[in-house]
Write a sequence for this structure.
């Protein structure tokens, strides 16, 4: 009774049953784990967001949209949303610009007359730039606390002192704190996008550059006229990735900012508020409502960027 | 840079005149020099803070809170490293993290590749539904699930246990692992597996002895992706391992906690030694496997 069919569906019914048994046995454990710990909680979150559940003993009471109407009047919630908006605009823009610049230098900019080559030592730079990506965000947060210390003992202020500039309160100035945190994100993320864009650039055929150089294109034309359009797809992928990262930032803000999201909520983000509302204040219904809001913000961003991507494809 | 530029100019003059239209315009010299400066500056920005942390672990408290943050340590004293390892429990946290991540990555790869293989290579009722169920997990922010997840784990009696963390890590790593690996399994040739089946190998044996070895490049990439992602996880440990079980904590939450306490206990060198200990193993592993790590982490984006 050996299985002799070709492909997935067996000839004999015994073989077919065995195939189904095999499929079932391979899917069972992963599917159970996934449904219990991922799908189940996601589904429950939508229900809990409609209750005023406050914790362990009290049973959740259905309150309809109350949490959401309260959210609309919640200043901290809007501060967090504003910060996501700011991150969504600035983080991808800065990271992609810096990464493109470096990737171009490392892959193409060092060559002459269209012979694309990186500057000397480009392999070393790529290795160094990528390293922060491997570090935990929590570790990076602690690291930058020493860099950003507000008095003369901070690394950055020590550098400023060399130039005769007074210490700056990187994390304690409300207008500056979010930018300081964003700079750390850029610091950590740039290397990843340098490697990503390098992969895209090395896929461009050599003759394209040679032909352009023969026609007299300089480095700027090589970059804006050829490289940029040809790796546009990769840049879009990067933009979506960074946009999604702009809706997270939990670990960095929680570890690095003053008073976790401070000063005075100047750096708070939704994930941090969700975590705090749930596990410090035990307002589980309200925290879930914030989770639902975060979900719709993320989905809206993803849908919009997919739409933009499609339009670009048609134009190309 | 300037030297090469002049040589090129000379060579160009020495050569016979090029046909019209072949006028390569170079902007060497200034551009090359400036771009090199930019590259060096960014390299210093990356290395600087990390190097400073290593050096600070050898300083005394007074040196760190003093007004010369850029000075080198006056003496190289390993005392802070010993304190961080024993008193601040970095050794324990690291061991915990290694155990949890080892187990969860192994199980993620086992279950993830099993599900991905079946979904990629077998036609059965509900295949697409199950596939999209897994992939849909990529669209949801984990923060949405946070509250119910905590109670699910608690009701199963797994809160404050490593088993709970391991199972949650596996479950949340499955969407991407299944998505990536099923695409990978689909690209592999079918003939070898069919030949094995003809020879009487069972489905299970074909999977473990034929398909898994063939899928090695994909498995390596995604294993690295999962190890680094799970090793660096911070949110799930602080939610699932409370302050009551400090001996079970993982490295990231331990470091964050030492950071919070360093000010009160006035042991800054201890903090930087702890930080160095968290960075050093990653640095060593990265230097050895940097090629694989770079391709593993960018694997998802390049597809």
């Amino acid at each position: 009774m050996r299985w002799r069919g070709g492909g997935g569906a067996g000839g004999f019914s015994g073989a077919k049953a065995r195939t189904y048994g095999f499929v079932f046995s391979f899917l069972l454990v992963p599917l159970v784990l996934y449904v219990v710990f991922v799908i189940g909680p996601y589904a429950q979150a939508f229900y809990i967001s409609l209750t005023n559940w406050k914790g362990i003993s009290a049973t959740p009471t259905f309150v309809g949209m109350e949490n959401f109407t309260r959210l609309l009047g919640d200043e901290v919630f809007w501060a967090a949303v504003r910060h996501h908006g700011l991150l969504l605009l600035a983080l991808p823009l800065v990271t992609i610009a810096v990464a493109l610049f470096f990737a171009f230098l490392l892959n193409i900019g060092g060559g002459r007359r269209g012979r694309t080559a990186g500057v000397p030592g480009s392999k070393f730079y790529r290795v160094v730039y990528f390293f922060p990506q491997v570090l935990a965000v929590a570790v990076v947060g602690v690291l930058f606390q020493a860099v950003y210390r507000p008095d003369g003992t901070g690394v950055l202020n020590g550098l400023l002192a060399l130039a005769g500039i007074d210490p700056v309160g990187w994390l304690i100035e409300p207008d500056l704190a979010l930018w300081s945190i964003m700079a750390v994100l850029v610091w950590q993320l740039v290397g990843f996008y340098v490697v990503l864009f390098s992969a895209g650039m090395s896929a461009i055929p050599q003759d394209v550059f040679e032909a352009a150089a023969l026609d007299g294109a300089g480095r700027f034309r090589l970059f804006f006229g050829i490289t940029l359009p040809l790796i546009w797809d990769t840049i879009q992928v990067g933009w979506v990735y960074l946009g999604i990262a702009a809706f997270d930032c939990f670990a960095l803000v929680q570890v690095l900012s003053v008073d976790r999201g401070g000063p005075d909520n100047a750096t708070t983000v939704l994930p941090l508020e969700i975590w705090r509302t749930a596990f410090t204040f035990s307002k589980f219904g309200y925290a879930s409502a914030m989770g639902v809001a975060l979900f719709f913000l993320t989905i809206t961003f993803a849908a919009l960027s997919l739409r933009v991507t499609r339009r670009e494809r048609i134009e190309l | 840079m300037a030297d090469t530029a002049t040589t090129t100019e000379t060579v160009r003059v020495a050569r016979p005149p090029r046909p019209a239209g072949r006028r390569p315009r170079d902007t060497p010299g200034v551009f090359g020099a400036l771009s090199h400066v930019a590259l060096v500056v960014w390299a210093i920005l990356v290395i600087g803070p990390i190097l400073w942390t290593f050096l600070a672990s050898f300083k005394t408290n007074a040196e760190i809170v003093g007004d010369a943050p850029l000075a080198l340590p006056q003496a190289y004293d390993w005392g802070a490293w010993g304190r961080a390892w024993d008193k601040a429990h970095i050794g324990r946290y690291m061991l915990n993290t290694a155990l949890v991540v080892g187990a969860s990555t192994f199980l993620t790869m086992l279950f993830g590749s099993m599900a991905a293989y079946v979904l990629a290579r077998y036609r059965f009722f509900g295949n697409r539904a199950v596939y999209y169920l897994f992939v849909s997990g990529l669209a949801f922010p984990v923060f949405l699930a946070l509250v119910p997840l905590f109670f699910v784990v608690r009701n199963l009696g797994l809160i404050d246990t490593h088993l709970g963390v391991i199972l949650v890590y596996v479950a949340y790593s499955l969407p991407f692992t299944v998505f990536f690996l099923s695409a990978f399994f689909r690209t592999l040739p079918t003939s070898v597996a069919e030949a094995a089946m003809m020879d009487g190998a069972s489905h299970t044996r074909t999977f473990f002895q034929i398909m898994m070895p063939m899928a090695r490049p994909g498995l390596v990439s995604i294993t690295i992706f999962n190890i680094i992602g799970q090793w660096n996880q911070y949110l799930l440990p602080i939610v699932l391992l409370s302050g009551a079980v400090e001996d079970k904590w993982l490295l990231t939450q331990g470091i964050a906690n030492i950071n919070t306490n360093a000010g009160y206990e006035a042991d800054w060198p201890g903090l930087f030694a702890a930080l160095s200990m968290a960075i050093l193993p990653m640095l060593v592993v990265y230097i050895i496997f940097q090629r694989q790590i770079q391709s593993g982490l960018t694997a998802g984006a390049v597809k």
